[in-house]
Amino acid sequence: MAEELEILLSDHSAGKPFRVREIRIDDSAAFTWVKIASSPKRFVPEVFVGDWAVAGKHPSPGIYRVLALVDCHDGVCRAVVRDGQHLFAYPFI
Predict the structure, then answer these.
(1) What SS3 state is found at 9?
(2) SS (H, E, C) 15-68
(3) Alpha-carbon span 79 to 48, nearest angstrom
(4) What mean pLDDT is predicted for residues 9-38?
(5) Do 29 and 55 form a contact (C-beta atoms < 8 A)?
(6) From CA 86, how far away is CA 38, in angstroms rounded?
(7) Per-residue pLDDT at 64
(8) 93: pLDDT strictly greater than 70
(9) Which residues on adjacent β-strands are paired with residue 82?
(10) How far apart are the first and last CA of the chain?
(11) Measuring CA to CA, which residue among 28, 21, 87, 33 is closest to residue 58?
(12) What is the DSSP secondary structure assignment for residue 46, as one 8-state letter?
């Protein structure tokens, strides 16, 4: 997962257009992702303000589609993936 995600984040930082991609989240990386408390209609920085995370909820290992990369108010670029009905974000700092 690390390499695929780093490429996406690097491309985003370089100003390249976002393309939906699939990444593999394995056991060792699942804890770095966290469930988003709400189910937003759009991925905007305001989603990641306040108590946006469900801290104890992490995705199961598997392949996930990266839906968005969001530059947040705290200076962190977060990736968003979907697991059926739940959304997860990386990184959870």
Answers:
(1) helix
(2) CCCCCCEEEEECHHHHCCCEEECCCCCCCCHHHHCCCCEECCCCCCCEEEEEEE
(3) 11
(4) 91
(5) no
(6) 9
(7) 93
(8) no
(9) 65, 87
(10) 18
(11) 33
(12) G
The per-residue pLDDT for 67 is: 93
**Per-residue tokens: 83:** 């697991």
Q: Is the pLDDT higher at 17 or at 41?
A: 17
**CB under 8 A, 24+ apart: contacts of 21-24:** 21/65, 21/66, 22/63, 22/64, 22/65, 22/66, 23/63, 23/64, 23/66, 23/81, 24/61, 24/62, 24/63, 24/64
The pLDDT value recorded for residue 40 is: 86
User: Does residue 88 contact residue 33 with C-beta atoms inside 8 Å?
Assistant: yes
Stated length of the chain: 93
Give the whole-angstrom CA distance, residue 37 versus residue 26: 22
With bands split at pLDDT 50, 70 and 90, how would you rate the model's confidence at 92?
confident
